[in-house]
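Action item from last meeting closed. Structure (253 res):
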């Protein structure tokens, strides 16, 4: 595992070299409880499927990265997209990447692309959120119950170690807080100037298909992929289909 210091915060990342010259760099953005290790073997398989360099990192406070010095606020995804991500790209010397974001990471990718339209070559979002739905809140409440009654803490401890409780509560408490109920990033969608691929499972426990349908409504050229027998993690539930879609998307850029 490599580390880089961005804005005074030491972050962990992995860097898989490109197999084919001239392909764009792919930067993976993890979910609300994720980190580098939770992508498992997907980054290597994505690199093999696309021939691209693939960089995957843990945001501040996750995995082996240092914690963010300030308490979590409802605008944390805006902060990641508009402050942390540009600084990371500059530190790594990456220009106009393709962002591949899952869940929170997908929302961060959309905010980034809408804020800096010329700075990204394409974005692929897996189960992103643009607004809060009742099914989302129900899923997050169910996650809280699982946290209290199952071995979920022990499972997450393998990835986040001593900060596991904080990682979970930062995510869970923020999404269930009254100020977050009005969180919405739809205003960024019309500003996106790059190609977009949006993927969502039909059995997503945290969202309805409206989450990716609004992307297509605001961006008529966006490509949607709706996957059967698939929950909130398309890259795990339907890995082959996701890899094929991403390879095709990157080849067309």
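Sequence:
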């Amino acid at each position: 595992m490599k580390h880089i210091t961005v804005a005074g915060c030491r972050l962990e990342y992995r860097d898989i070299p490109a197999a084919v010259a001239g392909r764009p760099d792919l930067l993976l953005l993890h979910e609300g409880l994720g980190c580098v290790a939770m992508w498992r073997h997907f980054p290597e398989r994505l690199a093999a499927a696309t021939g691209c360099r693939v960089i995957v990192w843990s945001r501040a406070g996750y995995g082996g990265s240092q914690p963010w010095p300030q308490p979590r606020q409802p605008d944390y995804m805006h902060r990641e997209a508009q402050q942390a991500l540009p600084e990371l790209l500059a530190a790594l010397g990456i220009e106009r990447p393709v962002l591949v974001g899952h869940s929170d990471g997908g929302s961060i990718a959309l905010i980034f692309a809408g804020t800096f339209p010329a700075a990204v070559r394409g974005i692929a979002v897996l189960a992103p959120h643009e607004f809060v739905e009742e099914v989302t809140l129900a899923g997050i409440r169910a996650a809280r119950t699982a946290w209290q009654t199952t071995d979920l803490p022990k499972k997450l401890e393998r990835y986040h170690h001593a900060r596991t409780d904080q990682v979970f509560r930062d995510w869970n408490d923020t999404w269930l807080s009254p100020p977050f109920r009005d969180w919405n990033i739809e205003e960024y969608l019309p500003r996106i100037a790059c190609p977009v691929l949006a993927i969502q499972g039909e059995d997503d426990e945290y969202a309805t298909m409206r989450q990716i349908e609004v992307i297509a409504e605001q961006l008529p050229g966006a490509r949607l992929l709706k996957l059967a027998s698939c929950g909130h993690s398309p890259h795990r539930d339907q890995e082959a289909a996701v890899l094929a879609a991403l390879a095709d998307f990157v080849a067309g850029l």
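Note appended to the action item: The chain has one domain: 2-251.
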